[in-house]
Write a structure and sequence with these properties.
By secondary structure, the protein is an alpha+beta fold. The protein is built from two helices and twelve strands; from the N terminus they run αββββββββββββα. It has a domain of 155 residues: Reeler domain (Immunoglobulin-like). Strands 2, 4, 5, 7, 8, 10, 11 and 12 form an eight-stranded mixed sheet that branches. It has a four-stranded antiparallel sheet with strand order 1-3-9-6, with no helix packed on it. Bound molecules: 2-acetamido-2-deoxy-beta-D-glucopyranose (NAG). The site of 2-acetamido-2-deoxy-beta-D-glucopyranose has 4 residues, from strand 10. InterPro entries: Ferric-chelate_Red/DefProt, Reeler_dom, Reeler_sf. This is Reelin domain-containing protein. One of its GO terms (cellular component) is membrane.
Length: 262
């Protein structure tokens, strides 16, 4: 609406009010819709203050233990150490422990959060989609193809605008070709299996060629949390169709948001 002379004052007041109301929103709330790609490199929110130097009250827990199969995935939980604190925002990435220059692997689109593309990669980071107080965010991460080695997750937790912890590091998770287990006695696989508990092998009906199938490995050898995995990793083709759909939906949502904020 064009401002005529009479309404000019009202117009100016309204515009100024709008600017005053809208401009600081990003400053006050940080980024209510998640960290922008510019935050990828430092993993630091642009809040104008430094991160906390104290030990983070939040942790990034490895829910499936510290060893996963190369073709498996890692389930993470972002949560407070003590169950008291909550966080509004987060940004998490996975790094090769020996090369922390860039994030690796990909995340599945989570229930509470969104996958973003950082530093030239694709779907290699997750950030929040709202600034509500959170006590638990569960994420699934898949290693890069043919990756073997130690991976650490680094998470920036934002408790509020002035209080955040940058790059809180998880325990390392080892991505391996084969989980060491007692079944290796029957196969020809010369993998370096330093099995500590050689549980008596009763039945191993699977052939050596299917050794990488994670379905039937014995849980006698108590590696990494003795809860029996329901092995949902059986279906090999990841639903890339739905992933790319949500990618595009995310992209459209992002551009709508950024045009709104402009
Ligand atoms: C932010 O969180 C810290 C730590 O819990 C608290 O001391 C501080 O009062 C909070 N600040 C605001 C603005 O809520």
């Amino acid at each position: 609406m064009p401002c005529n002379k009479k309404a000019a004052f009202t117009c100016a007041v309204v515009s100024a009010a709008l600017v005053l109301i809208l401009a600081p929103i990003r400053q006050i709330q940080g980024f209510p819709n998640g960290a922008p790609p510019t935050a990828c490199a430092t993993m630091t929110p642009g809040h104008g203050v430094g991160g906390q130097q104290s030990v983070s009250p939040f942790m990034t827990e490895l829910l499936d233990g510290e060893t996963v199969l190369m073709d498996g995935s890692v389930r993470l939980e972002l949560r407070p150490q003590n169950g008291v604190n909550s966080f509004k925002g987060f940004l998490v990435m996975a790094f090769d422990k020996t090369d922390e220059s860039k994030p690796i692997g990909t995340f599945k689109p989570p229930v509470d959060g969104k996958v973003i593309d950082c530093t030239g990669g694709v779907m290699n980071a997750v950030t929040h989609t709202n600034n509500l107080d959170k006590k638990s965010v569960t994420l699934d991460w898949t290693p890069p193809k043919n990756f073997m080695g130690q991976v650490v997750f680094r998470t920036t937790y934002v408790e509020n605008k002035s209080t955040f912890w940058v790059k809180t590091e998880s325990k390392a998770v080892a991505v391996v070709l084969e989980i060491p287990s007692a079944t290796s006695t029957t196969t020809m696989a010369p993998q370096t299996t330093t099995t500590t508990t050689a549980a008596p092998v009763s039945t191993t009906p699977m052939s050596a060629s299917t050794m990488s199938a994670p379905t039937q490995h014995h849980d006698h050898a108590d590696h990494a949390g003795d809860h029996d995995h329901p092995t949902t990793t059986v279906s090999p083709p990841k639903s890339t169709a739905s992933q790319s759909t949500s990618f595009w939906i995310g992209l459209i949502a992002l551009s709508m948001l950024s045009s709104l904020l402009r």
